[in-house]
Amino acid sequence: MLIDHFPVFGLRVRTPRLELRLPAPEELSDLADLAMHGIHGPDLMPFGNPWSELPPADRARRVIQRHWSTLAELKPDAWALNLVVFLDGRPVGVQEIEADDFGVRRQVQSESWLGLRHHGQGIGTEMRAAMLHLAFAGLGADEAVSVGYLDNHASLRVSRKLGYAENGTSRGISRGKLAPEQRFLLTRRAWDEHRRVDATIEGLAPCLPLLGVET
Question: pLDDT at position 77, please?
Answer without folding.
Answer: 96
